[in-house]
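Predict the holo structure. Ligand: 2-oxoglutaric acid.
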Amino acid sequence: MPENTNSKQHPSKKARKLPPHPGLSFKDVPSMYPEPDYPFPALSLEQRMHFELYGYTILDDLFTPQEMAAIESVSKKEKQGILDATGDACFPKPPPETKYHAHRNGSKWRGVRNEMENGDFYLDRLEIEGTLGLDPIFLSILTKPRLFGIATELLGGTFRFDMLAVRFNQRSTNNVLGWHGGVSRHRDRAVCMNGWFHTQILGLILFLTDVGPEDGGTGIFAGSHKFDIPFDELRTYIENNPQSPFFHQVEAKRGSVLLFADGPLMHRTIPIRSDRERLIMLCRMVHSDYLIGDTDWLGCIDSVPNELIEFFHGRAFKPRYRPRETSPSI
Ligand SMILES: O=C(O)CCC(=O)C(=O)O
């Protein structure tokens, strides 16, 4: 297995000027750094209306081709390192207490790799979680001012990054991740203000491969972020009505970014039917006062500069809402 250099207790983390870790859920830890500049509002009216109605929106220009190439390159390098360390073998089961294998710099992985009848090994899927410390590209793309503006706009105030991962998957006979979301947890945090819905958790999926109808584009129960109906009832409906106008399957070009109301919006991984491998980067953002200091799903935060650390570590929540009227240029 790759070397375990999990740096949860890395000395530089202890030395850094950070507010105390106050424990679970929402806490009021005052901000120690001034708010950086970022565009606000950051979405066009059409993108914002799409999120409002369907619970998701797609952007095509958030990351540059150079940034995508860098993310892809580091993801493939890490994947190769894991495959090399495994050798000609199925992936071992991770320890039950952690459910993941430790990897480099605060990251961890799990996956499914099986032996086929001809003796070759087939990688169903590989999930590498907590990738922030694996390469500077991750910090660089997360701290883009436009992303700060978008997250603030859709969460309705200050936010922090909560998880970051890359995932490979291929056509598989194993189960994929079924319908989830639709959670009522912290629903009081999903407020409507100035006529706009604001989610309590924001998901971001960057598609690093083209995703056509056969390539496992994320499945979405459009509009379900607004339904206060039991999860089982919603799941039964959407499973029994695959032709429903509420069932959307994302089709995207490499570089498209799906922003969705992770949590309230029901969504799932759609099984791949083509021979193409899918690679995504997945990131989750939450209100800045949620689980302050709980950065384990991000990975190593040592490279985050002090003036931006609160976007990872957390701080008191300050609401900020897109105005009811936006300038015609947005
Ligand atoms: O694979 C996808 O498209 C969705 C992944 C997802 O929803 C999740 O990991 O929570």
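The CA atoms of residues 219 and 249 lie 4 Å apart. Residues 1-14 have pLDDT under 50 and may be disordered.
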